[in-house]
Structure prediction request, 186 residues.
Amino acid sequence: MLDPVRNRRLVSRLVLVALGMFGFGYLLVPLYATICRVAGLNQVRVADAMGPQIGPQLSRTVLMQFDSNLHEGLPWVFRPIQPAARVHPGELVRVAFEARNESDRTIIGQAIASYAPEGAAAYVRKLQCFCFSLQTLAPHEVRRMPVLFIIDPKLPNDVPALTLSYTFFEVAAVRERPTGGARDLR
Prediction:
C-alpha cells in the first residue's frame, strides 16, 4: 500500500540528492582549479615552455610577421589584426587574427600554421592558438581569435625575422536537412 509519509520522505531525499549533485557539478570547476593551483598541477608557465631560460631577452628584438591565407573556395575573410610585432625572445606575446564568414551558411574551418624561414617552427612555442581546434562560423559571423606564443631565446642570432602564416581550410559545412531543422555534417 502507498504510505504518503514514506513517499514524501523519499521524494525529499531524492530532491536533496539531486540538489547535492547539482551543487557538486557547479563547484567542480573552481574546486579543480583550486586543487591544481595548490598542488602546482596543470599550469602553463613561461619557464615550463622555455626550459631553464626564464624571462625575455631585452637586449634582442626579433620581427615577427603574420600572414593569413584561405584555401580555394572558402568564402571567408581572414586577416591578422596586426601585420607584425617586435618581440623579445622569451617574452610572452599575444596577437589576434580575425575571420569573417561571408556566406549564408555555417562553415567549419581548420587553420594550419607554417613558418619561415625553414626550421623556424622549432623556435616558436604556441601556448594558445585557434589552430588547435576547429572553428565554426555562422553566416556573416566575425570572430577575433587569439594566439599566445613565445619565441625561444635559443633562436640563432643571425635570424632577425620570423613569419607565422596560417591557411584556413574548410573541414565541413553544416547544412539543413530538407526534412526540418536537424543538422547534417557533410
Remarks:
- The longest strand covers residues 161-176.
- The CA atoms of residues 176 and 182 lie 6 Å apart.
- The longest helix spans residues 4-39.
- Residues 173-186 have pLDDT under 50 and may be disordered.
